[in-house]
Amino acid sequence: RWSHGYFAVPKRVLDEDLARAILNGHTFSQQCRPPPSINLPHIPDILRKINQWATTSRGRISIVLGDFRHYFHQLPLTEDISYYFGIRLRGEPLASVWSTLPMGFSWAPYTAQCCSWVTLCHREPGEARIFNDEFLRNERLPSFVPVLDRMGKEIGFATIYLDNYIVVACDPDIAELASNRILRNARLMNVHVKTHQSFGPKQLLRHDVTKCLFLGAELFLANSRSHPIFRWRHDEKKFTLYSANFSELNQQHSCRMIARIVGRVIWHETLALRPLTHVADIIDVLRKSLKLSSELKKSYDDRFFEISVSDRQRLEVYWASIK
What we know:
Blueprint lengths: L2 E11 L2 E9 L1 H5 L12 H14 L5 E6 L11 H4 L3 E2 L8 E2 L10 H14 L23 E4 L5 E8 L2 E6 L2 H17 L15 E3 L4 E4 L2 E5 L8 E5 L1 H12 L4 E3 H17 L8 H14 L10 E3 L2 H13 L2
Helix pairs in contact: 7-8
């Protein structure tokens, strides 16, 4: 059997501290053919397409949102495939084998994205097409798929960002049909849709949308329906949590904390639809700290960096500017 290392990455969900299980599949992945691109959509492109259809329908769009639970780990592996995913801990004899698709294997994202698209687009014999599913015949995955009305006319789009999906349609009846069919398909394929406070019991379906949450950010109608413009902004609850963590940044802190701040800066600039050159000086401060700390041969949480008073002030000014 192939044996691999295993580690866990901290994860926080609804104020609960959890861990994300990761297989160290680097060596095995190098022996495999590189997977095709999963073509994740860019946030600006999602916003552009939502505004395109909001303008077409004078702001009256319906949105279906969903989130697949335990994304990779919903996909079982057969015994012959599990053979390649044994786990060995600290040089001990083989402990166990992975029974579901492991995060950390190079083909896991592509495989899971394929399954997600099939869950959205599957139709039983005789059922009308809601999505233009011609792409299912190809190896290359799409970033967006057109939503069709009963006459085959394009009236919206669907996209999947790993375990999150969104369907936007100008026709509320088609949106409702899509919502029901996705949940039906999920039951048929034994795929669990995450139960989440923001989504209701299974998924969210809203008509005449003025705001909703997607990818950890709030999408809101920033103008009148006669001239609809949707924009992104931080989800207030998550932004409050990020701000609290940022305020804990002292002159010396762990490498993991600085990596989180880098991620938040990049995410905010993405939501603001600005190039990262806009914050190049801020990212350089963080990168410099990470480079210095990486010279220490310690675990990620035990590596510490030092930030000068002037650099910390620059970070504080930036964070205050986005509140």
